[in-house]
Amino acid sequence: MEEQEQILKEDRLVVEALRKAGVFVSSSQDLVTTRDRYPKAIPVLLEMLAKVETLTIKGIIVRALGVKEAKGHAEPFLISEFETSLQDPSDVADDFRWKIANTLEILGGGKGASEALLRFLTDPRSGRARGMLSVAVAKAKNRDAIPILIDMLDRNEFTGFAAEALGILRAEEASPRLESIANSHEKPWVRRQASNALKRIRKPN
Q: SS3 for the chain, per residue?
């Protein structure tokens, strides 16, 4: 079966499963764009995430799980998908991992996900998802990540993310590097992240 045909088939399967649960959409993509809450869809999405095969539909499901109703439920499923995807070095899989990391960051890292997030953060196969993973692991309050995040400040593609994460963790030991970045980094958004991180670190308890 051609990939596009498989994508359309899987989309129909997701739509049918959602309708059986009382969630009426014309496409799985509708959940990504709607402003309505859909708590009844969460168990269905988690079930279908394991059933579908194309990364296109998996990616849509992952994005749809980036809502508060999925918090405390979706994390193990997302971690499992991320783990499996590490065997695939393709650009499509790299994009899929970024979507998972982004959803985990939205969910606040996730209870019980801290160790897995730290492991993914140090795995080069995680690719560009390491940026969002750095923020997710900080939101999971894993202070073991601090030395890794400080090292990531020297990786230009991750500097802004690592700065934000260090601010969340209020990592005082990162202050000298953050000050340097806030004053001299070439990218304005990275300078802002470093400056904001310093404000969080210096804010009285």
A: CCHHHHHHHHHHHHHHHHHHCCCCCCCCCHHHHCCCCCCCHHHHHHHHHHHCCCHHHHHHHHHHCCCHHHCCCCHHHHHHHHHHHCCCCCHHHHHHHHHHHHHHHHCCCCCCCHHHHHHHHCCHHHHHHHHHHHHHHHHCCCHHHHHHHHHHCCCCCCHHHHHHHHHHCCCHHHHHHHHHHHHHCCCHHHHHHHHHHHHHHHCCC
